[in-house]
Amino acid sequence: MSKLRVGVIGLGVGEKHAEAIARIPECELVAVCDRNPTILAAIAGKFPDVAARECDTEILDDPSIDLVCIASYDDCHFSQTLRALERGKHVFVEKPFVLHEEEAKRVREELRRRPDLRLSSNLILRRSPRFLDLRQRILSGQFGTLYHLEADYNYGRLEKITEGWRGKLPFYSAVHGGGVHVADLLMWLANDRILEVSAVGNALASQGSGFGNFDNVVAVLRFASGAVGKLGVNFGCRLPHFHTLALYGTKATFLNGRDCAWLYTSADPHVPPLILDTAYPGVHKGALIVSFVAAIQGRGEAEVSEEDVFASLSVCFAIERSAHSGLPVKVEYV
Fold first, then answer.
1. Has this prediction a pTM greater than 0.90?
2. For residue 175, which of 122, 210, 204, 214 has the smallest C-alpha distance?
3. Contact 60/89 with Cβ under 8 angstroms?
4. Which of 333, 289, 299 lies closest to 120 in space, CA to CA?
5. What is the secondary structure of 216-237 as a DSSP string?
6. Cα 231 to the chain's mean position, in Å?
7. Which of 5, 12, 158, 192 could form a disulfide with 236 if both were Cys (CB 3.0 to 4.6 A apart)?
């Protein structure tokens, strides 16, 4: 089987993509690209046999490249993804893979036109050892019936939207950029879809900064199974980056902590919980690329499928609409 020739665009987290690609025997990292010449030179120096490109079209339009990893600024994801697909390339793109619902629909149309191509996104919490262990416990029946699920994306990096490039974009959504991780995590763990959301938000933490959207959003969720839940996105918290997670089942309750998690199987305060010390997050940011490459080559399924990519962002589109309208919104899956 011939190796996949791969180019990486954007060398922030894209550096991790390049590291992952370089370790996959079935791939050949052939080009890296960044608009910042200093960053480009520094990262390209780590891969001496790889071409350093200053313009993204040098990768997107290169007919010899089979797969493009896109880790550029969020407002570039749509145009770069669409151009790559139109030129017959598979795409692994950072989240959010697009900013707007109409862009997601356009990408979906192109993928339907090119069923030979694959797309995935870096919803990396699926590879955390702690959450992989949790999912196996759920599938084995340890939780009984899940009836309530809560997750928060506590970013704790307000400067990313008040001073960084995100805040300079015409539109940036903390829900699309951060909440997508926990939306995907909840649906993946529960093997369930979110049907309806009701959200509220505020921007008190970033008040006066010029940021034009909510930095804090809370959404109530209704799942297809009848379970309910809560999803929070908090960019302004005085807390190191963390994913709170609480799952309540008829047989067990899971609470995530930074150093360990707790699994309760009794309401008796004298019965201690099981301590789960599996690593969290404990995952390389390029880890999902391995299964994506295998899927492209017909050797299995991607851990994050095309359907998963569209589903998680569809939930975020609904949460964003609900937070701004003040009304419940049904999720319209793209």
1. yes
2. 214
3. yes
4. 289
5. EEEEEEEETTS-EEEEEEESS-
6. 15
7. 158
Domains and CATH numbers, the chain: 4-117 (3.40.50.720), 125-285+313-330 (3.30.360.10)
How far is residue 94's CA from residue 72's CA, in Å, rounded to a whole number?
8
Question: SS in 3 state form for 24-54?
Answer: CCCEEEEEEECCCHHHHHHHHCCCCCCEEEC
What is the full per-residue pLDDT of the chain (334 aa) written as tens digits?
Answer: 689 999 999 999 999 999 999 999 999 999 999 999 999 999 999 999 999 999 999 999 999 999 999 999 999 999 999 999 999 999 999 999 999 999 999 999 999 999 999 999 999 999 999 999 999 999 999 999 999 999 999 999 999 999 999 999 999 999 999 999 999 999 999 999 999 999 999 999 999 999 999 999 999 999 999 999 999 999 999 999 999 999 999 999 999 999 999 999 999 999 999 999 999 999 999 999 999 999 999 999 999 999 999 999 999 999 999 999 999 999 999 9
In the chain, the N- to C-terminal Cα span, in Å, equals: 34
Give the list of residues 6+ apart from residue 212 with CB closer than 8 angstroms, or none.
171, 172
Give CA–CA dist 31/289, Å, rounded. 16
How far apart are alpha carbons 29 and 120 in whole angstroms? 18
